Amino acid sequence: MFAAPGSSVMLLGGFGFQTRLRGFGVGNLVKVEMVLADGRIVIADERETTEMQALRSESRSGTMRRLSPCQAAVFAGNLIYRFHRATAPFLIKHFCDCIKGAPREHYANVLLTAEPKGTYSLVVIQLCYLGPKGQGQEYLHAISSWDGERCLLNEVHEKTFLNQKDSIAQVLRGGGRTEVVHTECASHSVAG
Protein backbone atom coordinates (compact mmCIF):
# COMPACT_ATOMS: atom_id res chain seq x y z
CA MET A 1 0.00 0.00 0.00
CA PHE A 2 2.72 2.50 0.88
CA ALA A 3 4.42 2.02 -2.50
CA ALA A 4 1.27 2.99 -4.39
CA PRO A 5 0.71 6.76 -4.18
CA GLY A 6 -2.93 6.52 -5.27
CA SER A 7 -3.88 4.23 -2.40
CA SER A 8 -1.86 6.25 0.10
CA VAL A 9 -3.70 9.43 -0.84
CA MET A 10 -7.05 7.69 -0.54
CA LEU A 11 -6.38 5.88 2.72
CA LEU A 12 -4.04 7.98 4.78
CA GLY A 13 -5.67 11.35 5.03
CA GLY A 14 -5.77 14.91 3.98
CA PHE A 15 -9.03 16.25 2.65
CA GLY A 16 -10.93 15.11 -0.35
CA PHE A 17 -14.35 14.17 -1.54
CA GLN A 18 -14.89 11.67 1.31
CA THR A 19 -14.01 14.23 3.99
CA ARG A 20 -17.53 15.20 4.97
CA LEU A 21 -18.74 11.63 5.06
CA ARG A 22 -15.74 10.08 6.83
CA GLY A 23 -14.27 13.02 8.80
CA PHE A 24 -11.60 15.70 8.22
CA GLY A 25 -8.02 14.46 8.02
CA VAL A 26 -9.05 10.81 8.17
CA GLY A 27 -7.75 7.61 6.78
CA ASN A 28 -10.57 7.11 4.30
CA LEU A 29 -11.08 3.47 5.15
CA VAL A 30 -14.56 2.05 4.73
CA LYS A 31 -13.77 -1.60 5.37
CA VAL A 32 -10.49 -3.37 5.92
CA GLU A 33 -9.27 -6.93 6.22
CA MET A 34 -6.22 -6.74 8.45
CA VAL A 35 -3.57 -9.25 9.49
CA LEU A 36 -2.65 -8.71 13.15
CA ALA A 37 0.80 -9.33 14.63
CA ASP A 38 -0.33 -12.68 16.06
CA GLY A 39 -1.49 -13.85 12.61
CA ARG A 40 -5.22 -13.44 13.16
CA ILE A 41 -7.23 -11.88 10.36
CA VAL A 42 -9.71 -9.23 11.50
CA ILE A 43 -12.31 -7.49 9.36
CA ALA A 44 -13.37 -4.03 10.52
CA ASP A 45 -15.87 -1.71 8.87
CA GLU A 46 -17.51 1.60 9.66
CA ARG A 47 -20.16 -0.11 11.84
CA GLU A 48 -17.40 -1.32 14.17
CA THR A 49 -16.41 2.08 15.49
CA THR A 50 -13.67 1.06 17.94
CA GLU A 51 -11.66 -0.97 15.43
CA MET A 52 -12.06 1.60 12.65
CA GLN A 53 -11.01 4.50 14.88
CA ALA A 54 -7.89 2.56 15.86
CA LEU A 55 -7.11 1.80 12.22
CA ARG A 56 -7.72 5.35 11.09
CA SER A 57 -5.45 6.80 13.77
CA GLU A 58 -2.63 4.26 13.52
CA SER A 59 -1.49 5.72 10.19
CA ARG A 60 1.83 4.29 9.00
CA SER A 61 2.65 1.78 11.73
CA GLY A 62 3.35 -0.94 9.20
CA THR A 63 0.14 -2.92 9.66
CA MET A 64 -0.74 -5.06 6.65
CA ARG A 65 -4.05 -4.12 5.05
CA ARG A 66 -5.46 -6.34 2.36
CA LEU A 67 -8.88 -4.96 1.53
CA SER A 68 -10.12 -1.41 1.44
CA PRO A 69 -13.06 -0.87 -0.91
CA CYS A 70 -14.00 2.61 -2.00
CA GLN A 71 -16.62 4.08 -4.25
CA ALA A 72 -15.62 3.52 -7.89
CA ALA A 73 -17.20 6.68 -9.29
CA VAL A 74 -18.64 9.89 -7.94
CA PHE A 75 -20.67 12.78 -9.36
CA ALA A 76 -18.08 15.52 -9.04
CA GLY A 77 -16.18 18.39 -10.59
CA ASN A 78 -15.66 22.13 -10.69
CA LEU A 79 -17.77 25.16 -11.57
CA ILE A 80 -15.45 28.06 -12.41
CA TYR A 81 -16.45 31.74 -12.44
CA ARG A 82 -14.38 34.87 -12.97
CA PHE A 83 -13.83 36.69 -9.67
CA HIS A 84 -15.41 40.15 -9.53
CA ARG A 85 -15.31 42.02 -6.25
CA ALA A 86 -18.90 43.22 -6.72
CA THR A 87 -20.47 39.81 -7.41
CA ALA A 88 -18.29 37.22 -5.63
CA PRO A 89 -19.96 37.69 -2.21
CA PHE A 90 -23.36 37.01 -3.79
CA LEU A 91 -22.07 33.87 -5.51
CA ILE A 92 -20.63 32.59 -2.22
CA LYS A 93 -23.88 33.36 -0.38
CA HIS A 94 -25.85 31.56 -3.12
CA PHE A 95 -23.49 28.56 -2.78
CA CYS A 96 -23.95 28.52 1.01
CA ASP A 97 -27.73 28.74 0.68
CA CYS A 98 -27.75 25.85 -1.80
CA ILE A 99 -25.73 23.49 0.38
CA LYS A 100 -27.37 24.26 3.73
CA GLY A 101 -28.70 21.03 5.10
CA ALA A 102 -26.86 18.93 2.50
CA PRO A 103 -26.27 15.32 3.54
CA ARG A 104 -22.80 14.15 4.56
CA GLU A 105 -22.47 12.45 1.17
CA HIS A 106 -22.26 15.92 -0.42
CA TYR A 107 -18.80 17.49 -0.27
CA ALA A 108 -18.31 21.01 -1.58
CA ASN A 109 -16.06 23.99 -1.12
CA VAL A 110 -15.26 27.32 -2.71
CA LEU A 111 -11.74 28.27 -3.76
CA LEU A 112 -10.90 31.94 -4.27
CA THR A 113 -7.75 32.38 -6.34
CA ALA A 114 -5.56 35.47 -6.43
CA GLU A 115 -3.77 35.12 -9.73
CA PRO A 116 -0.58 36.90 -10.84
CA LYS A 117 -0.87 40.31 -12.53
CA GLY A 118 -2.07 40.16 -16.11
CA THR A 119 -4.54 37.34 -15.48
CA TYR A 120 -7.88 37.26 -13.73
CA SER A 121 -8.75 35.67 -10.42
CA LEU A 122 -11.34 32.91 -10.13
CA VAL A 123 -14.07 31.59 -7.90
CA VAL A 124 -13.98 27.79 -8.11
CA ILE A 125 -16.84 25.75 -6.66
CA GLN A 126 -15.85 22.13 -6.15
CA LEU A 127 -18.65 19.61 -5.80
CA CYS A 128 -18.74 15.92 -5.09
CA TYR A 129 -21.75 13.78 -4.34
CA LEU A 130 -21.17 10.22 -3.10
CA GLY A 131 -24.79 9.15 -3.60
CA PRO A 132 -26.98 8.62 -6.67
CA LYS A 133 -26.17 10.85 -9.66
CA GLY A 134 -29.72 12.26 -9.74
CA GLN A 135 -29.43 13.63 -6.22
CA GLY A 136 -26.03 15.12 -7.02
CA GLN A 137 -27.50 16.82 -10.08
CA GLU A 138 -30.06 18.56 -7.86
CA TYR A 139 -27.22 20.35 -6.04
CA LEU A 140 -25.45 21.11 -9.32
CA HIS A 141 -28.60 22.64 -10.84
CA ALA A 142 -29.29 24.68 -7.71
CA ILE A 143 -25.77 26.10 -7.53
CA SER A 144 -25.43 26.70 -11.29
CA SER A 145 -28.78 28.53 -11.37
CA TRP A 146 -26.99 31.66 -10.10
CA ASP A 147 -27.14 34.29 -12.85
CA GLY A 148 -24.83 36.99 -11.47
CA GLU A 149 -21.91 35.92 -13.70
CA ARG A 150 -21.43 33.53 -16.59
CA CYS A 151 -19.95 30.17 -15.59
CA LEU A 152 -16.62 29.83 -17.44
CA LEU A 153 -16.40 26.06 -16.96
CA ASN A 154 -18.76 23.38 -15.71
CA GLU A 155 -16.99 20.04 -15.66
CA VAL A 156 -19.20 18.29 -13.11
CA HIS A 157 -20.02 14.73 -14.17
CA GLU A 158 -19.49 11.14 -13.05
CA LYS A 159 -15.78 10.47 -12.62
CA THR A 160 -13.42 8.13 -10.84
CA PHE A 161 -11.67 8.86 -7.55
CA LEU A 162 -8.34 9.62 -9.24
CA ASN A 163 -9.94 11.86 -11.89
CA GLN A 164 -11.66 13.87 -9.15
CA LYS A 165 -8.41 14.22 -7.20
CA ASP A 166 -6.66 15.32 -10.42
CA SER A 167 -9.29 17.98 -11.16
CA ILE A 168 -8.79 19.40 -7.65
CA ALA A 169 -5.01 19.35 -8.12
CA GLN A 170 -5.26 21.22 -11.43
CA VAL A 171 -7.11 24.08 -9.76
CA LEU A 172 -4.70 24.20 -6.80
CA ARG A 173 -1.67 24.17 -9.14
CA GLY A 174 -2.38 27.72 -10.38
CA GLY A 175 0.28 30.40 -10.09
CA GLY A 176 -1.43 32.51 -7.42
CA ARG A 177 -2.69 32.22 -3.87
CA THR A 178 -5.80 30.17 -3.06
CA GLU A 179 -8.25 30.54 -0.16
CA VAL A 180 -10.78 27.80 0.63
CA VAL A 181 -14.27 27.92 2.16
CA HIS A 182 -15.20 24.34 3.16
CA THR A 183 -18.76 23.01 3.35
CA GLU A 184 -18.57 22.67 7.14
CA CYS A 185 -17.54 26.31 7.49
CA ALA A 186 -19.77 27.86 4.84
CA SER A 187 -22.75 28.51 7.08
CA HIS A 188 -20.52 30.30 9.59
CA SER A 189 -18.28 32.25 7.19
CA VAL A 190 -20.78 34.31 5.20
CA ALA A 191 -23.08 36.71 6.96
CA GLY A 192 -26.66 36.15 5.80
UniProtKB/TrEMBL annotation:
Highest taxon, organism lineage: Eukaryota
Annotated InterPro entries: FAD-bd_PCMH-like_sf (IPR036318), FAD-bd_PCMH_sub2 (IPR016169)
Single Gene Ontology MF annotation: flavin adenine dinucleotide binding
Gene3D superfamilies noted in UniProt: 3.30.465.10, 3.40.462.20
Name of the protein this chain belongs to: Uncharacterized protein
Annotated source species: Athelia psychrophila
